[in-house]
Amino acid sequence: MTAKLISGTEVAKAIREELTAEVTELKGKHNIVPGLVTILVGEDPASQSYVAAKNKTAHALGIYSEQVTLDPDTSEKELLELVDKYNNDPKINGILVQLPLPKHINEANVLYAIDPDKDVDGFHPVNVGKMVLGEKCFLPCTPHGILELLTRSGVETSGAEVVIIGRSNIVGKPIANLMLQKREAGNATITLCHTRTKDMAAHCRRADIIIAAVGVPKMVTADMVKDGVAIIDVGVNRIGKASNGKAILAGDVDFDAVKEKASCITPVPGGVGPMTITMLMKNTVQAAKMAANLI
């Protein structure tokens, strides 16, 4: 058996086409242009790249976007004042503060200052609480993208044994919560593994679906999975440089070995990664519709 490839690039493209049509309709029927602001503090190259990609995607979809870059020594007070400004700006439906922030700024204070109705990252406690309760809210982008990958690839989750490796607030905890709910891509039985889990391999061998989000290259090996398992690999690990200077990337799963046993698997790159920005755009469009009382 060689696994079917779950292409995040292709799924993200399909969703972006849907969003483009939705934005066009909002403009034509309601004179509404969804707006997103991205705020970057400092000059971290990875963060600069992420922010540029987010703004490029917004522009391609017809979403109005602003990008604000602040000096690394910007104070927490100044950043909070900027967030408050955009909380009160009717042109802006979504506010994204790029993480990580410099050490002198308390990330929680900044994230909590964002209006929950503009929290398109889904990190505000109000949205986290609503997510846990199964109420309508902005879902965190990477877990939301995983749900879309599973649904659009025809992976059955109802009654499935799902093992999630990693308990971060960004991926592990929210995807565990979402997949146990009575919802599309839900109704699963969840095992959440982490650094203190005893005999992780035994848990993985029972799994119908494995979601690896731990940040350890090739940690999930072929002997840890059963035949026919579905694999969602969230990890993006730099393991070297190619001769052309480009980074060599590996996921948390030993792709070449595991694909011979899995029924389907996401690649790295080109799997979960493209979905995260796409779901941010989906949340921004949802925020615009909410602000106009269309949903």
Description:
- The structure is a single chain.
- The protein contains ten helices and eleven strands.
- The chain has about 300 residues and is α/β, with parallel strands linked by helices.
- The strands form three sheets. It has a six-stranded parallel β-sheet with strand order 1-11-8-7-5-6, sandwiched between helices.
- The protein starts with a strand and ends with a helix.
- The relative contact order is 0.17.
Name of the CATH first level of the largest domain: Alpha Beta
- Total helices: the number is 10
Low-confidence stretches: none
* Average residue-wise pLDDT: 96
Major β-sheet strand ordering: 1-11-8-7-5-6
Instruction: Tell the overall outline.
Output: globular
| CATH homolog superfamily of the largest domain | NAD(P)-binding Rossmann-like Domain
- Can you give the helix content as a percent range? 40-55%
Query: Main beta sheet, described?
Result: 6 strands, parallel
Structure, briefly:
Helix content is 40%, strand content 17%. It is of the alpha/beta class. Strand 9 (237-241) and strand 10 form a beta hairpin.
SSE inventory with pairings:
Elements: E1 4-5, H1 8-30, E2 35-41, H2 45-61, E3 64-70, H3 76-87, E4 94-97, H4 107-113, H5 125-133, H6 141-152, E5 161-165, H7 172-180, E6 189-193, H8 200-206, E7 209-212, E8 230-233, E9 237-241, E10 247-250, H9 255-258, E11 264-265, H10 273-291
Parallel strand pairs: 1-11, 2-3, 2-4, 5-6, 5-7, 7-8, 8-11
Antiparallel strand pairs: 9-10
Helix pairs in contact: 1-10, 2-10, 6-7, 6-10
